[in-house]
Specification:
Length: 174
């Protein structure tokens, strides 16, 4: 860290953050993403990419969370984490500081996936435990499953959430 200009003892807090962002691996060694971060031309793009990965829950609420108001950001963080206001404010401050350094408009180059060579093996018959008590495919009953997603607004007002869930209970019988 000292060789990168982080000489203060307070800078040690960056190590866990860099690990979570994927710039350092578990033993503290720099990753390939860290090498991209060090290049001025690609710094903003890789930081934006890593922020989208680390804060995926926030970006699921608002795909442009980096541009959201401070109240909306704190509301979303509060809803996701359930933490107290002081902790939420620190999380929001960290997110905002990183987002201000990131370039969310830049496109990062696709990573080349290494080609994996897989040797063909003879297919294994299903084990008796997986086929036991299962009717043949044509005789299985048809099942339907419904997944309902509700995108809640980012707010600190609990009354809004209570009203939404009360309405769901009354109208859907859940």
């Amino acid at each position: 860290m000292r060789s990168l200009g982080f000489t203060s003892t307070n800078d040690r807090a960056l190590i866990p953050l860099f690990r979570k962002l994927g710039f350092l691996n578990g033993d503290g060694a720099p990753t390939e993403a860290f090498d991209v971060l060090r290049v001025k031309e690609t710094r903003g793009a890789i930081l934006a990419e890593k922020l989208r990965e680390l804060y995926a829950d926030l970006f699921a609420i608002n795909t442009s969370m980096q541009d959201a108001s401070d109240n909306d950001l704190r509301g979303a963080i509060s809803r996701i984490t359930g933490k107290d206001a002081a902790t939420v404010a620190r999380y929001a401050s960290t997110f905002r500081a990183l987002a201000n350094l990131a370039d969310f408009r830049a496109q990062t180059a696709p990573k080349a996936e290494p080609i994996k060579v897989v040797e063909a093996s003879a297919p294994q018959p299903p084990s008796p435990s997986t086929t036991h008590n299962m009717p043949p495919v044509g005789q299985r009953p048809t099942e339907f499953h419904y997944n309902i997603q509700i995108h809640l607004p980012a707010t600190n007002d609990v009354a809004i959430y209570n009203a939404i869930f009360r309405s769901l209970k009354e109208n859907l019988g859940i």
